[in-house]
Design brief:
This protein is an alpha/beta fold and 338 residues long. It has 17 helices and nine strands.
Length: 338
Amino acid sequence: MNDRLLRACRREPVDRTPVWMMRQAGRYLKEYRDIRQKIAFLDLCKNTDLAAEVSLQPYRIVGVDAVIFFSDILIPVEAMGVSVTLTDKGPEIDDPIRSQRHVDKLRTPDPALETPFVGSILKRLRQELDGKVPLIGFAGAPWTLASYMIEGGGSKSFAEIKGMAFRDPKLLHSLLDKLASTVSAYLLYQIESGAQVVQLFDTWAGELNRQDYEEFALPYTQKIFDNIGRRVPRILYINGCSNILESMCASGADVLSVDWRISIAEARRRTGDRVALQGNLDPCLLLGARERMLAKAAEILQQAGPLGHILNLGHGILPPTPVENACAFIDFAKTFRH
């Protein structure tokens, strides 16, 4: 069994650094695009056979050291009773959350009843993988999910959620707490269904300064990780995390996944031996000259050292990425030795 990722999460010795890529099942692969031509995105997330197939594509084609199950962070939000539409521009919420009445209407769903397809996909993948590489489950963190629910979709300014935070913090906290309960149950269900690692995506928490992060995002991440306990390794990803890195160490995560705006050397210096690190190649490097990309990958590996590091991108792989560059990145990581 290739358990390098599990060992790296626990900061145990490995013979080489494990490597995978966020959004590794996606549009850069022709095989994925062929399937997507026949089925809508949300329908794909709920189809056991096809979701398992696209989850496995990066393992079969690119050779990554872990499989992350194919889904979307808004699946549990939909199960809470929110109408979610996924368009080419991103997610859209029909009736954004703006009042306590909206929050009170939201369910705290039983994932086994409301999202049984998630369990089916994970069980299928564990069966298919047969221990060859670890299986990663994931969810969106409360602040990031709330941002979509309050903004009505993606945002550049996050004016609606920040306005609520500073105008009516009690209302926002009631939503965040309900989301933390929902996500806790959702991730525990994933673990029961076969996930061996879980990653919490708090993509938009980097929009907050440290004080606001510690008020509106961190407590809910802590609640989720406390509820999960030490059943499986826990990874926390935040885009634009350099200003809140020390606070992230208090989240209960075993691994902090960092973006490319901070060097792994600085992240290591600031976090010490409290957590393992994941990252952090700029995804755009995979669009450029291969020599430059591999030189940067080598720099990251050298700075991170041999213990407690998972090589990954600093954000999701981009749709225009040539598959051969993705393969070169993974192959290089597999041959690199400290």
